[in-house]
């Protein structure tokens, strides 16, 4: 899991000129192979954890692309988030990583937006007979 998280970090660099679509193509290429190998295991929750980490890294990058807080505010309001919730999140003293996990940013860029619009690959929703229940996970050290 630690190596997977490090690979996600490597594939989603902070300051890059690549647009988000090209980044998702690179991530999907790696993730499909990684997930296919790990589907042999019994814990689908680990796939969901990696997918969530990918989305958070991408949300963080979307936040950092808005160079000024007021631009981020206007973008989130245009995406349908209420002005109060957006102002509470954006004008706090949080940096981009903390902002990527706020309700305002997650509502503006929901999981289904990443999956359906941008084409993020998902493997955790599949059902295999050898998998345990999705809520069961183990801590790998």
Describe this structure in words.
The chain is 60% helix and 0% strand. By secondary structure, the chain is mainly α. The longest helix is centred in the middle third of the chain and has 21 residues, at 45-65. The radius of gyration is 16 Å and the shape is elongated. The protein starts with a helix and ends in a 24-residue tail after the last helix.
Beta-strand content estimate: under 5%
- Let me know the average pLDDT: 85
Gross geometry: elongated
**Radius of gyration using CA atoms only:** 16 Å
What is the total tally of β strands? 0
Distance between the termini: 9 Å
- State the order of secondary-structure elements, H for helix, E for strand: HHHHHHHH
What is the helix content?
Answer: 55-70%
- Report the major sheet: none
Helix and strand content put the structural class at mainly alpha
Number of helices: 8
Poorly predicted ranges: none
Quick gist of this model?
The protein contains eight helices and no strands.
Protein traits:
141 residues, mainly alpha
SSE diagram, text form:
Layout: H1 2-11, H2 20-38, H3 45-65, H4 69-78, H5 83-90, H6 96-99, H7 103-108, H8 111-117
């Amino acid at each position: 899991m630690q190596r997977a998280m490090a690979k996600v970090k490597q594939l989603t660099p902070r300051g890059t000129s690549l647009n988000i679509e090209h980044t998702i193509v690179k991530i999907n290429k790696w993730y499909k192979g990684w997930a296919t190998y790990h589907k042999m295991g019994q814990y689908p929750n680990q796939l969901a954890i990696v997918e969530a980490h990918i989305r958070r890294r991408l949300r963080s990058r979307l936040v950092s692309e808005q160079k000024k807080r007021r631009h981020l505010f206007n973008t989130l309001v245009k995406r349908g988030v209420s002005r109060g919730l957006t102002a509470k999140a954006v004008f706090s003293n949080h940096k981009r990583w903390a902002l990527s996990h706020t309700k305002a940013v997650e509502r503006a860029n929901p999981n289904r937006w990443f999956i359906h619009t941008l084409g993020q690959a998902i493997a955790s929703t599949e059902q295999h007979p050898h998998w345990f229940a999705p809520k069961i996970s183990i801590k790998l050290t």
